[in-house]
Amino acid sequence: MTDQSSPALKEIFNAERLQHIATEMSAVYPEFDAGKFLELAQSGLAELSVMQRMARVSECLHAVLPLDYEASLQVLRALAPRLNSGFVSMCLPHFVASYGAHAFERSMDALKYFTAFGSSEFAIRHFLRSDLQRSLQLMHLWSLDANEHVRRLASEGCRPRLPWSFRLEPVQTDPRLAAGILDNLKADPSLYVRKSVANHLNDITKDHPEWVLDLIEGWALDDKHTAWIARHALRSLIKQGNPRALAIIGASGKPEVEIMNVKVDPPVISLGQKITLSFAVKSTVETSQHLVIDYAVDYVKANGSTSAKVFKLKALTLPGKASEVISRGQQIKELTTRKHYAGVHAVHIMVNGERLASTSFEIVA
Question: What is the percentage of the chain residues whose pLDDT exceeds 70?
Fold first, then answer.
């Protein structure tokens, strides 16, 4: 996910968007003090991250609405379908998390409603933290809901390591707490839901890899939706070359291949240029093999040491004695999540988790 301090992302909540919110609020609640809302919401806006801006909108709505919590929810329910951005609509679940702790059932019902317009994934974590068992019981029911947005919230909201949010330490410690939710969704027809289930399980592999492997090995992987979740849930373990994870996706055993003609072009670049990694993989046996091919870049750090980053490349079935040429381009530019430094960067070709060949490129100042 993009860093929340990204200038472009922050502009989701710019002056024009705040005016839009004020206009639509006035349409559903004519007594709304749009001028006061805009004055409060725009104060110091430039210094705030996107998540801080979302919280600011929620706080300003609360400050301006002269209504009790229940009446405010009715107004916000009317506002939700009028907002022109799914991300912006997440200020409404934030309102629930901030001011609705005293009304659990009414607040959870509001989160269920609002999630269809954006997502209530961040807001619901506050209820999980304050009343874990009660929240999980309700989310278990949501995992059977007809609406894919609600089913997705059941999984995404209780992810142990949800980006941009605090960790759910009880679920991180004991993944069995949310296992029923994941079981209900393991063959979900919605890709939106399946991505969440896979990400939830990938979170768990950081702390309990064997638990996830045991779980997935017990699934019926002949179902295409379940197989998709398994493959994506195990991506971190596959990158690490975990034998059980590789076996689950059919890439077990030592790869019997030769890597040839490995090169990075151009070999010397300046920051912002594009490199192209290319090589050939050739089978050395008569039988076909299912291969997972990745590559790792040893990025140079400020102190001269390196840190490896693994990139997914390709999964393929290579016939006996056959060969295939593989090529991948990558632009080497500054990211919010990575700063580049001058120096020689090693590149490693990985097949079924094993490093079989290496090359390098150099970034010059």
Answer: 98
